[in-house]
Amino acid sequence: MSEKSRKEYKYIYGPVPSWRLGSSLGIDPISGEGKICSFDCVYCQLGRTVLHTKRRKVFVPVSKIIKEIRSLPPVKIDYMTFSGTGEPTSAKNLGKMIKAVKRIRKEPVAVLTNSSLMYRKDVRKDLSLADVVIAKLDASSERTFRRINQPVEGMKLADIVRAIKKFKTGYKGKLVLQIMFMEENRGYAGRIAQIAKEIGPYEVQLNTPLRPSVVEPLSRKKMIEVGRYFKGMNVISVYKSPRKRVKPISGEDTMRRRGKV
Ligand code: SF4
């Protein structure tokens, strides 16, 4: 692609070789200069949260996202994935975006969420339009939740777990749990696995910060130990999953959102 056409991609990035979704085209419904999120996770590859909020609002009009997707060159894509520079459910028009993407593309739609806004009916309704919802759960106690995810004032892990369960009840797609393990929560793997079992997701994704992060990743051996607690569940682990070889349409935009191409 020419330099000019590369710069035109402002809201989409990749496709990236995702260990969970194959060749994944990223759609960023926030697309801010800095991160906008209800969390400020200690391991976040995007650095510190610039706008720490649980308010929903429109950041990017649906038409702009669709215009970029329409101009995509013919590349192999397995999933259209909402993620990017913050929490995608913060975008008030997420549901409209998912519907619009589904009208013009045949690939399944995935949303990566930190689960924090799932207590809202409008957020659950938007997420129910996606084929796959990958929901974050990194802790089993309020204390560890606050230390790892650093949520906005007043957010409780118990409310989030309740909301994930509620969402799961009526959801027709695949609900997946993503858990980031590090030294801080390694000792609570058994308790986190217990909560995961109560939720009953389609799949559990065990992760550790292998992308650029200030938090050290757990070793392969430690991740195997963690994985033992999830026996009997459908588990994939970041160390074990093969990555597809895919070439992004814009390396620069991908770097900004993922910390690596
Ligand atoms: S929820 Fe995601 S975007 Fe938000 S701080 Fe955590 S890792 Fe970063």
Low-confidence stretches: 1-6
- Structural class call reads alpha/beta
The top level CATH class name: Alpha Beta
Helix content: 25-40%
Which features would summarize this protein structure in a list?
261 residues; alpha/beta; TIM Barrel; 8-stranded mixed beta sheet; two-stranded parallel ribbon; 10 helices; globular; binds iron/sulfur cluster
How would you portray this structure in words?
It is a single chain. The chain has 261 residues and is an alpha/beta fold. α3 links the parallel β5 and β6. The N terminus is likely disordered. The chain has one domain: Aldolase class I (TIM Barrel). The longest helix is centred in the middle third of the chain and has 14 residues. The strands form two sheets. Strands 1-2-5-6-7-8-9-10 form an eight-stranded mixed sheet. α2 runs parallel beside α3 and α3 packs parallel to α4. The chain contains ten helices and ten strands. 33% of the residues lie in helices and 19% in strands. The chain binds iron/sulfur cluster. Iron/sulfur cluster binds next to β3.
Brief synopsis:
The protein is an alpha/beta fold and 261 residues long.
Task: Lay out the secondary structure.
Layout lengths: L2 H5 L4 E7 L3 E6 L7 E3 L11 E4 L9 H9 L8 E4 L11 H11 L4 E5 L7 H7 L4 E5 L5 H8 L7 H14 L3 E7 L2 H4 L2 H11 L3 E5 L12 H9 L6 E3 L13 H8 L3
Helix pairs in contact: 2-3, 3-4
